[in-house]
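During the reporting period the student researcher (J.K.) took over the structure-prediction task from the postdoctoral fellow and processed the backlog of single-chain submissions. One of the processed entries is reproduced below for the supervisory committee.
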Amino acid sequence: MDSQPSNWKDKVVDLLYWRDIKKTGVVFGASLFLLLSLTVFSIVSVVAYIALGLLSVTISFRIYKGVIQAIQKSDEGHPFRAYLDKDVAVSEELVQKYSHVVLGHFNNTIKELRRLFLVDDLVDSLKFAVLMWVFTYVGALFNGLTLMILAVISLFSIPIIYEKHQVQIDHYLGLVNKNVKDAVTKIQDKIPGLKRKTE
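J.K. obtained the following structure tokens:
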């Protein structure tokens, strides 16, 4: 059981690091095409067009195979029989496993939001307020779909850029991180009540 999640994670990492260029290109292209389609058409139209495209391919292939079988007088059967005979039901164990994981994440998120909104730690709540304030400007510039498109492009480009230029990026990130920590420490020292709680 434990080998499956790590195998799944390894496949995602291979996909994001472009280990198999054809597979990554297909996933990246399809994701980007779907998101760009949603910027032009409604989700109902996009789903309908994808379904029509898939149906036209499968129906054409079925008719083609039927004509070939009639000409060659062979009895190969249905061209999609192997897929039709496969069991596609989702097991109860799988649903329970992932529902427990999702429920755990949901509960942790609720606890963290409660902690932030009820100001358990003033510094963390102020950071959250600043983040939400920044998001108001991000929301004014971009809609959710544009952010998703940017996220997909970043997801498929940042890991490979980081892998190729890791030393330089780590150096500059270390400098930025040090400067930010120094600034936060100076601010916390000057303003009473902003010192972090000791754990």
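The committee noted the following: The helical segments are 3-16, 21-40, 43-72, 81-84, 92-117, 122-141, 144-164, 166-190.
J.K. will present the remaining backlog at the next meeting.
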